[in-house]
Write a structure and sequence with these properties.
Blueprint: H1 2-14, E1 18-25, E2 32-37, E3 44-52, E4 55-62, H2 66-70, E5 73-75, E6 80-84, H3 93-110
Antiparallel strand pairs: 1-2, 1-4, 3-4, 3-6, 5-6
């Protein structure tokens, strides 16, 4: 059973990940984000949510180099959250954390 779960979990890693790519000022609803295939060069996505000169700026993209350097999770210095999985950069940082925890608990129940 564990082997089957391991095989199923490893399949998405071999397939290109899809991320939201684009930007917004103020609120996410003010931006333009496109569902983009990141190719085989990246299995991560990122979302940066920062305030520049008093304006909230949200950027989403494939995590090719950024997430390789930062790792998965939130980096308070840059405002960047890196995640793995299709369109994982659509949610807020809190939602990403909760989703990751639920997935980990579900996986542990199978083992």
């Amino acid at each position: 059973m564990r082997f089957a779960l391991l095989v199923l979990l490893s399949v998405p890693a071999a397939v290109a990940v899809r991320c939201w790519v684009g930007g917004a000022f103020g609120d996410e609803s003010n931006g333009a984000f496109v569902d983009t295939n990141c190719g085989t060069t990246s299995d991560t996505c990122y979302k940066q949510d920062i305030v520049l000169v008093g304006v909230r700026t949200i950027t989403k993209s494939c995590g090719v180099i950024i997430c390789d350097n930062l790792g998965i999770g939130y980096d308070a210095n840059t405002g960047i959250t890196c995640c793995k999985g299709d369109l994982c950069n659509s949610a807020s940082s809190t939602s990403l954390l909760v989703t990751s925890m639920v997935a980990a608990m579900a996986a542990s129940m199978w083992c």
